[in-house]
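Model: You mentioned two targets. I'll fold them one after the other.
Researcher: Yes, keep them separate.
Model: Target one:
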Amino acid sequence: MLERQEIEVFLALAEELHFGRTAERLRCTPGRVSQIVKNMERRIGSPLFVRSSRRVTLSPLGEQLRADVLPAHRQIEQAYRRAVAAGRGITGTLRVGYTTPWAADAVLRAGEAFSARHPDCAVEIREIQFADPHGPLRSGEVDLQISELPVREPDLTAGPVLFAEPRALLVPAGHALARQASVSVEDLALAPLITFAAEYPAYWLEYHLPTHTPGGRPIIRGPAVRYWPEVLTQVAAGQGVAPVAARAEEFHSRPGIVFVPFRDAPTIDYGLLWPTHQATAAVRAFTAILCETVAESAPDAGRRSRTAVTTRAK
């Protein structure tokens, strides 16, 4: 009878075909891996692996054992994960909101990993509109969402920052600012600022759509919009300008508008939000997986943002 540790070592070595990598994967020593395999081979009475100074391969018997053991091992692991998920309440449907396309991309990738680990819990995603930024969370339509920070609401908890995006100013193609390599926060006084027709907290509005520049110059208020496509339309029509994430140019570039990078504005930070009293096991598990997903792709995302700004500045 094979013990669990023996099965795990055998299957890992059969996949890695390298004692060092197998030991690293299983967090033990190469000597321990070798000892377990030798004990298995001694009891079975024949080699499971063919070893040479340069490579490790499965013997015919090893191939047969792997084919017999692997499906059963996967089935046991899946049953164990289902039991853990049920015990922790990670079942049913988890509804996740987002406000930007790059956040949606991250949620989709995290959703795939989450579903693999918790197959009894489905993930549904939906876009959150400017018109009602926190309403879906408060009504229970979504369980958590990625939104622009800051958020300081007593009934909502703000989790970790997932994206810290450099800012750009979205300006009409014919505006004088469109011909500049970069803009300053002080330049917000030079054109009407597109605003939002929604009940955002005063602290949030002042951070994203200030009434005065740092130097004290008043910022004219432009048309108020309810949905993101209206921002693009109003700017293209020459009705105002809008501070946005520089990465938005990758997804929303169109005739009549220009993205000009800021040289002195703070980043737009995007973080997870969830109802303070509903931090379920599923929410916590998805948050951890989403953070892992974003961290793994962070170098590429940073390179894309820098490239977009550099290209615009040339």
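Model: Target two:
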Amino acid sequence: MINANGYQQYRYNSIMSASPERLMIMLFEGAIKFVRLAKKAVDEKDIESANYNIARAEDIIAELEASLDMSYEVSEDLVKIYDFLYRQLIEANIKKDVNILDTVESMLTDLKDTWSEACIRLKKNA
């Protein structure tokens, strides 16, 4: 059996030792996880859990947006995407709409995959 404190320490160490690129991927993975948990909660009519998980996904999207370096042109496009995702999460939370959550999950997965591919290419060219 895994010790809960040991697991928490492992997670903490993983985060603290991760590269900025890996941290971005971890944020996307976390947002995707919370969206999936929210979808399950909506399906099970667990409103409290759905709200909690959507709010956690919103927090991650807000953090992604806040971390943008606006000196890059692509950041302007990412602000628009993150703003759209955030607004979609709010709407999904109000309506408890799995279809909206499906759209958000799909977009987050695409962003994570794109970021992962960019990291791989960056490492190959280094």
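Researcher: Noted. Anything on target two?
Model: The CA atoms of residues 68 and 119 lie 17 Å apart.
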